[in-house]
Design goal:
The chain has 424 residues and is an alpha/beta fold. The chain has two domains: 17-166 and 372-387, Rossmann fold, CATH 3.40.50.720; 168-202 and 242-367 and 398-419, Dihydrodipicolinate Reductase, domain 2, CATH 3.30.360. It contains 13 helices and 15 strands. The chain has helices spanning 17-29, 53-63, 78-87, 97-101, 118-127, 142-153, 169-179, 219-223, 233-237, 248-265, 370-380, 389-408, 414-419; strands spanning 44-49, 68-74, 92-94, 108-111, 131-135, 159-162, 186-194, 272-278, 291-298, 302-309, 317-323, 326-334, 342-350, 361-362, 412-413. The chain has a nine-stranded mixed sheet. The structure holds nicotinamide-adenine-dinucleotide. Residues 49-55, 74-77, 80, 97, 112-115, 117, 135-136, 162, 164, 221-222, 224, 252 line the site of nicotinamide-adenine-dinucleotide.
């Protein structure tokens, strides 16, 4: 994948001996644990924090990589620990992630906890000197994202954000076509994401297991830095539906697409955002909207629109990058009208007005396994991951700008968003 066509700041480059020693001195002076440097053939011993639905998937993905071992799993719910045990019988199990992070024999940590805990867990993992794979969205708020950006940039840890579409071959294709000037001036990007569910069953709603109670769930650890409150099984299981723990579909799904668009076009954070919508599909007590229209304004004459519904999935998800000289169509999901089968492709089409002799191009770059890319970077320590902290930061800021605009019922600028006090 060609990373040079992007303006994403590269996190690290090969260090010469003097730079390496200087960096080590800064790290020691700052009290940050230096990473345990692994050789190309050394086993990566990793731990998992949060072995829920996504964490178990990440765990399986990590175990597929050669020469890796999961030695510990931390989760606050005994059922989730039991499920992890079935996947990695030899791993130590903890409820408190602190105990996992205190272990000196762990090189790397995967974090797949609910959104409101990402910053807390990422900061603690970096401070413990461990390389980190942290699920998207980077954080629950913009100030937390800024804190994580600072901490990671001040460390030598190898960090991959769980924005796996950054490792897709389609992104390499889009970047190449844009770099080659095939699009001309891009003024508009349309993007969308859609799902459906049976009547009466809201998207994302999970049933509450019989043993989901304070005896089996460490509720104070789930709350983290949230105010103390009585155990609430609905909030614990269905945290995605509540602002206190979630950013709704903007942080669940828009973030993937906006990161992809920003990487393809080499964009910095938006300069302003608006967002409208509401809880329209299923009025099931959720706070976060299911129907959403976001407009993100970028510098240099560009608007990105993202729409989402949970009441119709005909067009799956995708992006259209619209330029004066050409168009990129990138779609995935149930896009085939006849068979409803899952389809994914990227294509370039010339605009006949400005490229009359141009030809259509089908994307064909091979993608990388996102987890494998993290492991490769852990071993080499001289290249940026495909979704470095900067991508996590930019995409998180864009997502939170949209939510702030929705919740304040107005257009919000980047300056206002950065100055806003997070609330739920
Ligand atoms: N990259 C992707 O495509 C993708 C897909 C799905 C989910 N995700 C992300 O993964 C994260 C987890 O989502 P999920 O669906 O697996 O949620 P989940 O509720 O199924 O899992 C979260 C797990 O974290 C545990 N947990 C909560 N507080 C904890 C704490 N203080 N210490 C340790 N464990 C704790 C819970 O017990 C639970 O097992 C979210 O941020 C979500 O956005 C990413």
């Amino acid at each position: 994948m060609n990373r040079n066509s992007s303006d994403i700041p590269q996190k690290s480059s090969a260090l010469n001996r003097r730079e390496f020693l200087a960096a080590g001195a800064i790290i020691l002076a700052a009290g940050i644990a230096p990473p345990h440097v692994l050789g190309a053939n050394d086993r990566i011993r990793f731990g998992l924090i949060g072995s829920g639905s996504r964490g178990q998937q990440d765990l399986r993905d990590a175990l597929k990589q050669p020469n890796t071992e999961c030695v510990a799993v931390a989760d606050i719910y005994s059922r989730r620990r039991d499920e992890a045990k079935a996947i990695v019988p030899g791993a130590e199990l903890y409820d408190d992630p602190r105990r996992l992070l205190d272990r000196k024999d762990i090189d790397a940590v995967i974090i797949a906890t609910p959104l409101h805990l990402h910053a807390q867990h990422l900061l603690a993992t970096i401070a413990a000197g461990k390389d980190t794979y942290s699920e998207k969205t980077l954080t629950w708020s913009i100030p937390e994202a800024a804190e994580c950006l600072r901490a990671v940039k001040g460390s030598r840890q190898v960090v991959q954000i769980g924005l796996q579409h950054e490792s897709e071959g389609e992104l390499a294709d889009a970047r190449q076509w844009i770099k080659d000037g095939l699009l001309g001036k891009v003024t508009l990007v349309e993007s969308w994401m859609s799902r459906n569910s049976p009547h009466g069953k809201g998207q994302w709603v999970r049933s509450i297991p019989a043993d989901c109670d304070p005896q089996h769930v460490n509720w104070p650890l789930f709350l983290g830095r949230r105010p103390a409150s009585a155990f609430d099984a609905q909030k614990y299981v269905n945290w995605r539906l509540f602002w206190e723990f979630s950013g709704g579909n903007v942080t669940e799904n828009m973030v993937h697409q906006i990161a992809w668009i920003m990487s393809a076009l080499g964009l910095a954070e938006p300069v302003a955002a608006t967002m409208s919508g509401g809880v329209f599909s299923e009025k099931d007590g959720r706070q976060v909207p299911d129907t959403i229209a976001v407009t993100l304004e970028f510098a240099n004459d560009l608007v990105v629109v993202w729409q989402s519904t949970f009441s119709n999935k005909r067009f799956g998800l995708g992006e259209h990058i619209l330029g004066s000289d050409g168009t990129i169509e990138h779609v995935a999901g149930a896009t085939d009208m006849v068979t409803d089968k899952y389809e994914s492709f990227i294509r370039y089409y010339p605009e006949k007005d400005n490229r009359p002799d141009g030809a259509e191009i089908a994307g064909k770059s091979r993608g990388q396994d996102h987890m494998a890319n993290w492991m490769t970077c852990i071993r080499s320590r001289n290249q940026a991951t495909n979704a470095p902290i900067e991508t996590g930061y930019k995409s998180a800021v864009a997502a939170h700008m949209a939510n702030l605009a929705y919740r304040q019922h107005r257009r919000i600028t980047i300056e206002e968003a950065i100055a806003a006090k997070p609330s739920f």
